[in-house]
């Protein structure tokens, strides 16, 4: 996965430590414009973070030596700074709430709710936007509890979940970022890839790639009914970053397979009644 190539300030280097990084050197490239400057949706307070230096505790050895390995403490430091950056991210400028009529639904229903919000109460929902946006979306939602009717996954499991679809070409070719509510609670990232197939009846539950190893992952806050949460997912190329309640919970490279199809952003739910806003860049 590519990262920013911005250099650290020379006054900040400390040669007494085997590893020295400035935060700008490890941030996902998706946070930067092509010219190296932070995207405008990063608030000004985050711009100063490139001055922050932090050091990993490592055994003295050459950075280019054959024994150089991943250092867990470096990962923890990187995680901390990335979380600091992303916790301050406002909803990207220009993002707007969508309406029920903006969706193409292949399953379930999205309805209007009070205060111009949206809701889903069907046992399954699959939706994509009718128009193209950036591959970035935010769902501000409140989980209201399980649905009355029950839908089973292909494995037979009854899972309550709600999440975002990126590059959603159709029901058979899509990137999923799902927040599980029950029986487990976690953020799950997967790619569903079925070349030349378009509808669920054609691909069913085949083609899932679930064993994607992120650079960084963390558990989201526990979800209880009637408590508000925020899920944001964004892709730049094959690079994906996910925040839950303004905390970085997944950052990694989905690989070239994620770029073999393309489509709009969207939503999915299973066995979950959810009140939500869905925000995208028009």
Give an overview in words.
With 282 residues, this protein is mainly beta. It is 9% helix and 37% strand. It is built from 3 helices and 18 strands. It has helices at 44-47, 72-87, 200-203, and strands spanning 20-22, 53-55, 95-97, 103-107, 111-113, 117-120, 124-129, 136-145, 160-170, 173-182, 186-192, 208-209, 216-217, 228-236, 239-244, 247-253, 266-270, 273-281. Strands 3, 5, 6, 8, 13, 14, 15, 16 and 18 form a 9-stranded antiparallel sheet that branches. Strands 4-7-17-9-10-11-12 form a 7-stranded antiparallel sheet, with no helix packed on it. A two-stranded antiparallel ribbon has the order 1-2. A hairpin with a 3-residue loop joins strand 10 (173-182) and strand 11. The longest helix has 16 residues, at 72-87. It is globular and about 40 Å long. The two termini are 27 Å apart. Residues 1-27, 29-71, 73-77 and 83-92 have low confidence and may be disordered.
